[in-house]
Amino acid sequence: MPTVFTIGHSNQPAAEFFALLTKHNIECLVDVRSNPYSRFRHFNREPLDDRLARLGIRYLYLGDSLGGHPNPDEFYVGGRVAYERVAALPEFRRGIGQVVDASEQQRLALMCTEEDPALCHRHPLLARMLVERDLEVLHIRRDGTVQDATQMVERVDLRMPLFESDGEDLTWVSPKRIRRGRRS
Fold this sequence. Notes:
Layout: E1 3-8, H1 14-23, E2 28-31, H2 45-54, E3 58-61, H3 63-66, E4 76-77, E5 80-81, H4 83-87, H5 90-103, E6 108-112, H6 122-132, E7 136-140, E8 146-148
Parallel strand pairs: 1-6, 1-7, 2-3, 2-6
Antiparallel strand pairs: 4-5, 7-8
């Protein structure tokens, strides 16, 4: 069974972040941020790609198909991303297929901004879709430990209002409300 890692860069110093990738023998970093830029310059797409290349790690941007902040308003319900709608998109399914194929060839990690995978789309959306395709998903935490995605409990704000919409599963939504205009 292929394994896919995930990691969130948060506000980590560059050296600590790259040490985690090295510790876990990551060969390809897949950027799944909708917007591949950060207020921490070393996590901006171009400097990140350059640094990874020097470490012998391939950089692949798939945030356009696997990002957590889709652009059209139709993907949002009550300020949260409706993951069932995102997962039905052909481009999302193609992106998941690319991850599955790449995981058979090299050790890869999906990267986004949020350190805690349960508060990011890496766990409730991406890990769920990959586990359904019989991949092992391990979340790399800032302290260097890993969490098995199948052992994590979904954390959604229970104060969230319930929404009804033509039989859609609107409980499968982003764990946090998304402020439009910021795309990660």
